[in-house]
Amino acid sequence: MKKKVRAIGLISGGLDSILAVKVIQSQGIKVTGLCFTCPFFGSQHAKAAAKGLNIPLIVKDFTEDHFLIVKNPPHGYGKTMNPCIDCHALMLKIAGQLMENKGFDFIFTGEVLNERPLSQNRQSLHVVANTSGYEKYIVRPLSAKLLDETEPEKKGLLNRQALLDIQGRSRKRQISLAQEFDIKEYPNPAGGCLLTDRAFSNRLKELLEHNVDPAYFELQLLRFGRHFRVSSHSKLVVGRDELENGIIEKFIIEGSFLFRTDEVPGPVCLLVGPDAKEHLDAAACICANYSDTKDKTECKVMCEQADKYREITVITDKAFREKGRIN
């Protein structure tokens, strides 16, 4: 009997990657999805897409390798701290290793030629594939007819004529194909990588200026609250609402301090860093200034560390509450 062709596809959960699966499946090929997680993006959309497509999904946490390229990307950043070229190359390298180890015949992605001018132009697609080390085995089914023929096509594992020639930023053809394939639910094409968000990138850049090797929880914490630099080694994170207050509370670790106002509604604040103990008064003052306490009045702030509590009394001065804030 003829061997069943098997492919591994990078799945983000967006419409392009879903359509890529459908196009490959239409040729009778068995598909397994692959997605990645790190502090800057997760697997929620990919898991939902894989469930809808009824395909197995491999979820790979590549935080350690990914963060190395975030700090020093060989091909540089995009508009913010997004190392898209090297990030995609790393994903494809890992996909290639899985292809070899698990017996897949080729790799595919949902990339569309010129959909993203900087990271999906012809040159960038070539650089990504070449850097991964698996260029001959990478198929981009949505734009394949516009790109060089790949090894799976040459071997007859894929019918090139049944692949597509989509290009550019218009989504009309993808939306039309979604209707043809009866795909009703998919996320907006906004990406989802926090490194493309300017405010988040500013926080990350500031963190790396003070700590080139931050802990995992410090990267996760960048997503929440207002951030204040209280010293070169320590900073305070201030919850913006009840939901964030609850999240920030869960990040308390040994050596950190949790603050909340004692008598009036206010934020939960987390002070972290090796010299945090030296800046309790400053942290309490910021906490009080974001509470409902009126300006120029006395406010009691509770400070918690390892189930030990102390009360710090400060005078609010809301005119200075933005001092030290990280944009």
Q: Mean of the pLDDT scores?
A: 95
Distance between the termini: 62 Å
Q: How many β-strand runs?
A: 12
CATH superfamily of the largest domain: HUPs
Overall body shape: elongated
CATH topology of the largest domain: Rossmann fold
User: Describe the biggest sheet?
Assistant: 7 strands, antiparallel
Strand residues, percent: 15-25%
Order of helices and strands: EHEHEHHEHEHHHHEEHEEHEEE
* CATH top level assignment of the largest domain: Alpha Beta
**Poorly predicted segments:** none
Mind telling me the C-alpha Rg? 24 Å
H/I helix tally: 11
**Overall SS class:** alpha/beta
What is the spatial order of strands in the main beta sheet? 11-10-8-9-7-6-12
Features:
single chain, Rossmann fold, 2 domains, seven-stranded antiparallel sheet, 34% helix
How would you describe the overall organization of this protein?
- This protein is of the alpha/beta class and 327 residues long.
- It has 2 domains: 6-194, 3-Layer(aba) Sandwich (Rossmann fold); 197-326, no CATH class.
- The protein has helices spanning 15-25, 44-53, 63-71, 84-102, 122-132, 151-154, 172-180, 198-210, 216-221, 242-249, 280-289; strands spanning 6-10, 30-37, 57-61, 106-108, 138-139, 226-229, 235-238, 257-261, 268-272, 298-305, 308-315, 325-326.
- The strands form 2 sheets. A 7-stranded antiparallel beta sheet has the order 11-10-8-9-7-6-12, with helices on both faces. A 5-stranded parallel beta sheet has the order 3-2-1-4-5, sandwiched between helices.
